[in-house]
Design a protein that fits this description.
Blueprint lengths: L1 E11 L2 E11 L4 E6 L5 H9 L6 E6 L2 E5 L4 E2 L7 E4 L11 H6 L7 H10 L15 H13 L5 E5 L7 H17 L3 E5 L3 H7 L2 E6 L2 E6 L1 H5 L8 E13 L2 E8 L2 E7 L8 E6 L10
Parallel strand pairs: 3-9, 3-10, 7-8, 8-9
Antiparallel strand pairs: 1-2, 1-4, 4-5, 5-6, 10-11, 12-13, 12-15, 13-14
Bound molecules: adenosine-5'-triphosphate.
């Protein structure tokens, strides 16, 4: 379990404000920090990693104290077992895929490099240089480098936001898989609601440095659920205009449904499809 209790005065574009966050992340949990630009999301990740110091605070992982300002404890990043992936891959251009990943571990752990490269499906590309890889492949190298040291905590700062929709979606599936396989405790920063829905067990809604809401994505994002007979969450796959309404195609767990609506939706948006007016019919199939 990660315990985070931090306070720091920041200087935003509107002036000074205090980042004040107090939350726990259960072991094996996938937690996302969501919020507008400048709300303090990255600063929280950097504090967990030890790259930034709060004015006051306490951070621990499974009883190991990373930071305790009252006791002047502040472990440096290399003493915190944390893997970090940023938006801009940050790979070494003069090293191959294998070398980029192996750089993070000492010689005794080299066996693990091959294992991790196979898990993220990069093994066949291990002798290539970053410049010859796609954005999605480069981000998988960054991910492999972050997990090869077997971190207790994986920190992801908008790692997929530079990628286009289909690659992002595929990498989201892989992230979820890797989180489970390596039994990680993951904290993601994202401002993409469908991504938050797809990946997170819980989400923190951060606004101007304060936690406004914390809960499952449904609890945090769906203000009021439809008080009707049934409703399902899905992702918008297609939008077309038909006279005065839009017809959207929604993927509900692999089932495609078409719904007419006067509201405009975007492809990739997470929606709740429900009905209030009639009783659904259930037929044995
Ligand atoms: N060490 C610091 N001292 C003072 N202000 C800081 C410090 N670090 C960051 N800030 C400011 O605090 C604000 C929050 O920054 P942060 O990067 O945490 O936001 P964010 O929510 O991750 O934003 P984005 O989504 O744009 O990345 C920014 O306005 C930033 O300039």
């Amino acid at each position: 379990m990660i315990i985070v209790k931090v306070k720091k005065q920041l200087i935003g574009y509107k002036g000074k404000f205090t980042l004040e966050a107090d939350f726990i992340v259960e072991k094996g949990e996938f937690l996302t920090i969501f919020g507008k630009s400048g709300s303090g999301k990255t600063t929280i990740l950097r504090m967990i990693a030890g790259l930034e110091k709060p004015d006051e605070g306490y951070i621990e992982f499974d009883g190991k104290v990373y930071l305790d300002s009252s006791k002047k404890i502040n472990l440096p990043p290399q003493k915190r077992n944390v893997g970090f992936v940023f938006q801009n891959y940050a790979l070494f251009p003069n090293m191959t895929v294998y070398e980029n990943v192996a750089y993070a571990v000492d010689k005794k752990q080299l066996d693990r490099v091959d294992e991790v490269l196979k898990t993220v499906e990069l093994y066949s590309l291990k002798d290539r240089y970053p410049s010859s890889l796609s954005g999605g492949q480069q981000q998988r190298v960054a991910l492999a480098r972050a997990i090869v040291k077997n971190p207790d905590i994986l920190l992801l700062d908008e790692p997929l936001s530079a990628l286009d929709y289909s690659i992002r979606s595929k990498l989201q599936d892989e992230l979820k898989k890797i989180h489970k396989i390596f039994n990680l405790t993951t904290v993601l920063v994202s401002h993409d609601k469908p991504e938050v829905f797809k990946l997170s067990d819980r989400v923190i809604y951060l606004e101007d440095g304060k936690i406004k809401k914390i809960g499952t994505p449904r609890e945090v994002f769906i203000e009021k659920s439809i008080s009707g007979k049934f409703s399902f969450y899905g992702t918008v796959l297609d939008v077309r205009k038909a006279d005065l309404v839009y017809v959207i195609t929604v993927d509900i767990d692999g089932n495609l449904v078409e719904v007419a609506t006067t509201q405009e939706f975007k492809v990739g948006e997470e929606v709740l499809v429900g009905t209030k007016a009639f009783n659904p019919v259930v037929i044995k199939v």
